[in-house]
């Protein structure tokens, strides 16, 4: 049932909202649907455009009002399409290029992040020559690994494809999954989770109370946070040097789907399959705020800004949300945006185990559908604060019943 309608000032766009908790944007006069906006948790009863048309305000019986930046939605249409013979993997950590995998020509490609122009490529021939049946791409570590049938784990540079070294991992059958920033520690899946010392000074160690659903290293490579099994879904912060647990984070009611340390390694964020996000101090594991609620389905992705002040989250509800770390308050919501899952994804027989993207250049990158890449500038926390001071109706401000 439609409960609210609003025309844009120029009469070219119609917004509708109702009891399905979504906002539909329609082109006038053709009434072609342009976008579906997700974010409210109850029926939407009122809509209004700002006088210049770039902002849509919505009010819901969930007790919130939201501001939607339609100029950002418009910029989504200016993305670029990955060629049909390739699959998007993730941007490089510095935001300089998008990594794509070409299964027809059997090569890894680098493309300009904003327009898709080719920047370089390297072939996969060396994988097969060294007896590797597949490869794992670690974006943040700019490393590719391949496990050979003779027990050797091989390493290549992700940017250039240059071979680096090998490590004898013995008879343990595993799939590499997470690589520490200093490239010393590898988390591997072998039933549950194991941690492998890539310097070869320690034997592979099984991680207690682990479940292969989430794991993340701190930026200083001192700590590892990983999710646990049912029924308590505990997250463990593991001391890598001491090979023992440092803290156990309890309270989640479903599997922890994503976890991430802040750049200064003093906080850790966890997100569960019920959409709930929690912020904890690290490494002692004290809850910083009540759970952050807004996503309507499972969390796929968490990321702190470079200054540790903002947390970005993405979920299966196709929204990206910005949270103020100091207050736990949601500041912005980008609808109809998908960040690839942190789970393993298979591309033409080669495996990506850490699809990721990096906001340090004030860019947020997402996929529309399976192949359309979008990268747009996003406001800083200071710019968001300035915008809120200029607008009497703030994003997610509680409204009277």
Task: Report on this structure.
This protein is mainly beta and 401 residues long. The chain has three domains: 2-76, Thrombin, subunit H (Beta Barrel); 80-206 and 344-358, Lipocalin (Beta Barrel); 208-339, Methylamine Dehydrogenase, Chain H (7 Propeller), CATH 2.130.10. The protein contains three helices and 36 strands. It has a six-stranded mixed sheet, with no helix packed on it. The radius of gyration is 22 Å and the shape is globular. The chain starts with a strand and ends with a strand. Mean pLDDT is 81; it is low at 342-360 and 392-401.
Give a nutshell description of this structure:
By secondary structure, this protein is mostly beta strands.
Secondary structure: helix percent: under 10%
Largest beta-sheet details: 6 strands, mixed
Task: Give the number of domains.
Answer: 3
Low-confidence stretches: 342-360, 392-401
Mean pLDDT over the full residue set: 81
Shape: globular
Instruction: Report, as a whole number of angstroms, the end-to-end distance.
Output: 20 Å
Please identify the top-level CATH class of the largest domain: Mainly Beta
**CATH-scheme architecture of the largest domain:** Beta Barrel
CATH third-level topology of the largest domain:
Lipocalin
From the alpha carbons, calculate the radius of gyration and give it in angstroms: 22 Å
- Estimate the strand proportion: over 45%
| Class by SSE composition | mainly beta
């Amino acid at each position: 049932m439609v409960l609210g309608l609003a025309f844009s000032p120029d009469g070219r766009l119609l917004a509708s909202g109702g009891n399905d908790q979504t906002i539909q944007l329609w082109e006038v006069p053709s009434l072609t649907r342009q976008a579906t906006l997700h974010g409210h948790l109850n029926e939407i009863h009122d809509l209004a455009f700002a006088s210049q048309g770039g902002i849509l305000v919505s009010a819901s019986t969930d007790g919130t009002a939201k501001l939607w930046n339609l100029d950002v939605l418009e910029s989504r249409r200016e993305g670029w399409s990955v060629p049909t013979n390739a699959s998007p993997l993730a941007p490089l950590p510095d935001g300089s290029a998008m990594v794509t995998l070409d299964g027809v020509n059997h090569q890894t490609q680098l493309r300009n992040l904003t327009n898709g122009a080719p920047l370089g490529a390297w072939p996969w021939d060396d994988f097969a020559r060294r007896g590797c049946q597949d490869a794992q791409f670690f974006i943040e570590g700019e490393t590719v690994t391949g496990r050979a049938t003779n027990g050797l784990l091989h390493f290549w540079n992700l940017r250039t494809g240059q071979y680096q070294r090998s490590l004898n991992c013995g008879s343990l059958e595993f799939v590499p999954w997470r690589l520490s920033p200093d490239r010393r520690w590898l988390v591997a899946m072998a039933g549950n989770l194991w941690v492998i010392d890539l310097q070869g000074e320690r034997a592979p160690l099984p991680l207690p109370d682990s479940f292969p659903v989430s794991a993340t290293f701190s930026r200083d490579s001192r700590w590892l946070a990983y999710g646990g099994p049912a029924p308590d879904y505990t997250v463990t912060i593991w001391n890598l040097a001491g090979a023992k647990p440092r803290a156990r984070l309890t309270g989640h009611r479903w599997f922890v789907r994503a976890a991430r340390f802040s750049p200064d390694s003093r906080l850790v964020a966890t997100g569960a399959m019920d959409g709930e996000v929690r912020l904890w101090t690290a490494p002692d594991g004290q809850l910083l705020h009540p759970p952050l609620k807004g996503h309507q389905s499972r969390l796929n992705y968490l990321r702190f800004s470079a200054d540790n002040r903002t947390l970005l989250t993405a979920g299966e509800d196709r929204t990206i949300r910005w949270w103020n770390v100091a207050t736990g308050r949601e500041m912005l919501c980008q609808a109809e945006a998908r960040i690839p899952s942190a789970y393993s994804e298979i591309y033409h027989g080669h495996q990506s185990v850490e699809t990721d993207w990096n906001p340090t250049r004030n860019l947020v990158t997402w996929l529309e559908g399976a192949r359309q890449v979008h990268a747009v500038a996003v406001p800083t926390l200071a710019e968001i604060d300035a915008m809120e001071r200029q607008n009497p109706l703030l994003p997610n401000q509680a409204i009277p019943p």
